[in-house]
């Protein structure tokens, strides 16, 4: 039922408070509500932090309890937590949300145009497939044609998603 | 006197144009000046530059010293260190006091011939109030003298969103601010049918999109008077024809068309350089579900 546990070395994401948005490692547990926490590679000084503002991640580091900051930093850099975190979907979602909030009026226009183009292509291919399917129902026809429209659809989709991402990233 | 003047000319250190009369004195005076400069440098090299003493007033707490002003005066020996400015200039200025009295001739027999008259006389009336009361219109300036402000977000070339008027929702390029404070704005016309027009700063959203308008030359005759609405108001008391002669329909003059062309051609060239900007200017701004203006970044 529960997969992520509070343990020494668990990397947590701080969701609110002065250090919101940073990663931190649990060094020790103080009592039921607080933990001793340290984030040498994310700019958080060693301090007590309530569990409520922490959200556990999948990463666990190996260091003994109450290890000093140097040890925590070594373990952090050995596991390359910063890169691993940036590769997770969680971090990417956060980044996408931030970018969306920063979009200017011009960016919103570009995204709208890109989305429109993409949807048009998808609809076009869908209509083709539907046509094939309806024809199939009347006459048994070649299944080859259904494969071809899928191929141009995929690169089209990829291009459009890239454009959408580019438009979002563009003037930053 | 002449020597002082020559020295004064040289002290700024510039090469004075050689005049023939003080010419002979110059080389004579140059040498002592150079000698003095040489002595100064030697003196500086021998003696150390005078060090400044640390504060003679120990600090008890922040902002509070141990000794009072008079005690500090004595400790710093300021009684020995009274400097006065060089007297020559003061003496000169003192001599330049304006004349206080003048003697004027007086006619008539047995009158003594002349009188000594003060040039600046004492006032003959002293008002009861020291500072005269201010007029009710004090500090109230007419519109032409008002200070015009412009929001920092609006710079030449900014894309603005018009919020009121017949062009509401349209995105438009800002050119410059006119004398009355209104903004001169253009569509350009081919893009969104907004001509060279004035817009009010308050009824406009400034986006962060800017077009580089650095080289665009806006004709100087585009002022507020050019854009002001014209109304004929001289009916000759004939009630039958009054309503016809006044301007019913606005007609675009040839001058407006030529001005529009001149400005737009320059602006359009800049717009085409930015991808998708033309389409952006053609579109209109609107709010839809889930779009809140206070959360939008423009």
Automatic annotation (TrEMBL), chain A:
Coiled coil: none annotated. InterPro entries: Rib_uL2_dom2, Ribosomal_eL14, Ribosomal_eL14_dom, Translation_prot_SH3-like_sf. Residues 140-156 have a biased composition (Basic and acidic residues). The keyword Ribonucleoprotein applies. GO terms for molecular function: RNA binding; structural constituent of ribosome. PANTHER family: 60S RIBOSOMAL PROTEIN L14, LARGE RIBOSOMAL SUBUNIT PROTEIN EL14. This is Large ribosomal subunit protein eL14. It comes from Anhinga anhinga.
From TrEMBL, chain B:
InterPro entries: 60S_ribosomal_eL6, Rib_uL2_dom2, Ribosomal_eL6_CS, Ribosomal_eL6_KOW, Ribosomal_uL6_N, Translation_prot_SH3-like_sf. Residues 46-105 form the Large ribosomal subunit protein uL6 N-terminal domain. Residues 45-55 have a biased composition (Basic residues). Residues 1-21 have a biased composition (Basic and acidic residues). It is found in: Cytoplasm, Cytosol; Endoplasmic reticulum. GO terms for molecular function: RNA binding; structural constituent of ribosome. Component of the large ribosomal subunit. May bind IPO9 with low affinity. This is 60S ribosomal protein L6. It comes from Anhinga anhinga (Anhinga). The lineage of its organism: Eukaryota, Metazoa, Chordata, Craniata, Vertebrata. The gene is Rpl6.
């Amino acid at each position: 039922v529960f997969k992520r546990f509070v343990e020494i070395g668990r990397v947590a994401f701080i969701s609110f408070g002065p250090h919101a948005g940073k990663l931190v490692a649990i060094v020790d547990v103080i009592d039921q509500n607080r933990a001793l926490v340290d984030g040498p590679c994310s700019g958080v000084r060693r301090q007590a932090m309530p569990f409520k503002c922490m959200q556990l991640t999948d990463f666990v580091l190996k260091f003994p309890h109450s290890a000093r900051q140097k040890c925590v930093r070594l373990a952090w850099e050995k596991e390359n937590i910063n890169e691993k975190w940036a590769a997770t979907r969680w971090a990417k979602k956060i980044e996408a949300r931030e970018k969306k909030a920063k979009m200017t009026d011009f960016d919103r226009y570009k995204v709208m145009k890109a989305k429109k183009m993409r949807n048009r292509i998808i609809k076009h291919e869908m209509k083709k497939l539907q046509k094939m399917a309806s024809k199939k129902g009347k006459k048994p026809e070649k299944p080859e044609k259904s494969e071809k429209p899928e191929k141009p659809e995929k690169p089209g989709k990829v291009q459009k998603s890239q454009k959408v991402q580019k438009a979002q990233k563009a003037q930053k | 006197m002449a020597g002082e003047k020559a020295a004064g000319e040289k002290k700024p250190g510039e090469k004075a144009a050689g005049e023939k009369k003080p010419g002979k004195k110059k080389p004579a005076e140059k040498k002592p000046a150079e000698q003095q400069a040489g002595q100064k440098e030697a003196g500086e090299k021998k003696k150390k530059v005078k060090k400044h003493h640390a504060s003679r007033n120990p600090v008890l707490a922040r902002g509070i010293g141990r000794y009072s002003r008079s005690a500090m005066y004595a400790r710093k020996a300021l009684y020995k260190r009274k400097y006065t400015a060089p007297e020559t200039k003061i003496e000169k200025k003192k001599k330049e006091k304006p004349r206080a009295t003048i003697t004027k001739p007086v006619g008539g027999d047995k009158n003594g011939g002349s009188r000594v008259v003060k040039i600046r006389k004492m006032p003959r009336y002293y008002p009861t109030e020291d500072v005269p009361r201010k007029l009710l219109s004090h500090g109230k300036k007419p519109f032409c003298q008002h200070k015009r402000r412009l929001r920092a977000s609006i710079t030449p070339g900014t894309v603005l969103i018009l919020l009121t008027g017949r062009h509401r929702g349209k995105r438009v390029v800002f050119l410059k601010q006119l004398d009355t404070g209104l903004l001169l704005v253009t569509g350009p016309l081919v893009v969104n049918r907004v001509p060279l027009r004035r817009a009010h700063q308050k009824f406009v959203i400034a986006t962060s999109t800017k077009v580089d308008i650095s080289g665009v030359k806006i004709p100087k005759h585009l002022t507020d008077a050019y854009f002001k609405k014209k109304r004929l108001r001289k009916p000759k008391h004939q009630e039958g024809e009054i309503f016809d002669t006044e301007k019913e329909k606005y007609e675009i003059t040839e001058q407006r068309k030529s001005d529009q062309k001149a400005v737009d051609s320059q602006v359009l060239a800049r717009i085409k350089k930015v991808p998708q900007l033309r389409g952006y200017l053609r579109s209109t701004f609107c709010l839809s579900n889930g779009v809140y203006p206070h959360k939008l970044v423009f």
